[in-house]
Structures are given as C-alpha cells and as structure tokens.
Amino acid sequence: MSEERLQIAPESAAPERRKSSFWGKLKRGLLMTHTEVFDRVEAAIEGRAVLDEETLEHLEEGLIAADLGVETALELVDELRRDVKQREALDPLRLRERLVDEMALLLLDAPRPAPRRPGPLVTLLVGVNGVGKTTTAAKLARRALADGERVLLAAADTFRAAAVEQLTLWAQRLEVDVVKQGPGADPAAVVFDALQAARARGVDQVIVDTAGRLHTKDHLMAELAKIKRVIDREAAGWQQRRLLVLDATTGQNAVAQAREFVRSVAVDGIILAKLDGTAKGGVAVAIARELRLPIVYLGVGEAADDLVEFRPREFAAALLG
Ligand SMILES: Nc1nc2c(ncn2[C@@H]2O[C@H](COP(=O)(O)OP(=O)(O)OP(=O)(O)O)[C@@H](O)[C@H]2O)c(=O)[nH]1
Ligand SMILES: [Mg+2]
Fold first, then answer.
1. What is the pTM of this model?
2. Which end of the chain has fewer CB atoms at under 10 Å, N or C?
C-alpha cells in the first residue's frame, strides 16, 4: 500500500469554510451539478417561445442527460405536461420554479430515513472499493461529536493494514476511540469487541467501517451477514442502520451498483459521497426515486465536516434553483 493511500485529507484550511452552513455546503457540493442541470434546461428551451410538446421532449432529454435517470425525468416532465395549457407562453424562470417544486415533491414522496431514536445507535458502512466508506465513518463521528454524543469507531476493514491505519488517523484527529485488531482478523470479531467496549463505556454511537466489496463476492457478502448477526445479538435493542456508500462521480453506474448490492444485502439507506467532484449529482434523484431507498447524507468534500443531510426541498432548490 503506498504512503499516499495512507494520507487523510487535511482539515479544511479556512475556518469559515468548516463552519459554513448547511446551505453553503450543499450549494458548494452541488456547484458542478447545478451548472450541468441548469445548462441542460437552458439548452432545451433555448429559442422556444411556447411550452409545447416538442419543448417538453427536449427538456426530458436534457434531464436524462443530466443523470436524473430515465424514469425520474419522464415523471418530472409528465407532471409539467399535465398542467401546461395548450401553447402556453414559455417563461424560463417560471419553468425552473415549477421544476424545483415538482422535483421536491418527487423527492418528498421517496422513502425517508428513520429518525434517530433515543438510546445508542450502531451504523454499519458498506459498499464497493474506494467509494468513501472510511472518510464517511470519520464524518459521521464528527457529526455525532458535534451533537454531544460519545462515539466509538470500529475498524472492521481488516483486509488491508492500511485501512486500519487510515481510520486510526481519523480517530486521532477527531479524538475518538477506535477498536481494532491485527490484519486478517475476523471483522465480526472486531465488531463484537467494539460493541462490548461501547456497552462498558456508555457510548452513544458505534460507527463500523468495513472493507470494500463487490456484490459478486459471496464470501464477502456472507461476512456482512455475520457482522449483522453479531450486531443483532450484542446490540439488541439498539437502533441499527446499514448504510450503503455510493460514489456520485460514477453517475448512473452508482444506481446499477446499488441495485446489485441490495439484492445481496439489505440496506437501510444511502450515503452519496463525492458530490463535490462531479457534474453527475443529479443521480441522487434517480437513487431516491428508482431504488426506493432513503438517501441519508451527502458527502461534499474530503474533510470531516463535509457531510450534509439530504433534505428534499433544499436539494431540489440547490440543483435547479
Ligand atoms: N471530493 C471528495 N472526496 C471524497 C469524499 N469522500 C471520500 N473522498 C475521497 O475518496 C477517496 C477514497 O475514500 P475512502 O474513504 O478511503 O474510501 P473507502 O470506501 O473507504 O475505500 P476502500 O476502503 O479502499 O474500499 C479518498 O481520497 C477520500 O478523501 C467526498 O465526499 N468528496
Ligand atoms: Mg476504507
């Protein structure tokens, strides 16, 4: 494993950036995607005076090209079609407002994450290689700390020695405890240790980092099932969530990946990472609508603070507004 791989991203240099609001982070994270979606909508309606069928079809194509997913783009334009009057004059500003409203409604109608219940919570992060699981574990820990909760990280990616070191670096920076074992250890045993320690120390949140895996690797999927059994037994009565981390830069491939993954292992929600590095963030809409899985958080950068909640209205406004 190269030295470079061991590095964790530096803290955001500017304190004002670290402390920036939900809205500021979301807008910054969606900057490239906003430009993409905005330009596609502009191109679709350019030079058109009326909102007729042909314009709607152009719009549909533009939204599909902006990674919103075919089904979702069709649904969205169908909503517009329904209340467009014959040869209505096209007002671009009004059209965008309507798209924001319709998209917000579609997203509000998609499954929403389970609210945090009182009592301890264990979060298992799963996903394919390199999507951002370990970084997300650190981000969730930072968030829990900010909420005044006691956090424990569990290094259940025992596949690579570097993975344990990477999580340990984050733990040091965040000043939280990490439970780990030697390389090659059974990840379920690490989770067992972590839950025992959590109970002994009165921890509020345990965040479990796991190794990257493809849904096709049966033994690795069985490993997740074993971890789940340990959690069911050792954290009985705790709130549990299994979150699938997806890489937004892969666009529609992230949707296909998630579809395959959830066939092998049940997940409770999605974290869409790396939104800041892509114009394909429209894929969040496809994920919410087409996978019928709640998006819980969005990753908007490499630092521990770069995580925002997924809020349908705000997301639609930041995307299209
Ligand atoms: N720009 C950006 N980079 C991110 C984000 N999340 C993670 N990364 C970067 O993506 C790379 C991979 O992140 P990791 O957290 O190591 O991914 P992983 O899923 O744990 O990888 P494996 O353990 O190898 O499967 C790192 O360079 C991270 O800094 C994000 O939201 N935005
Ligand atoms: Mg990792």
1. 0.94
2. N
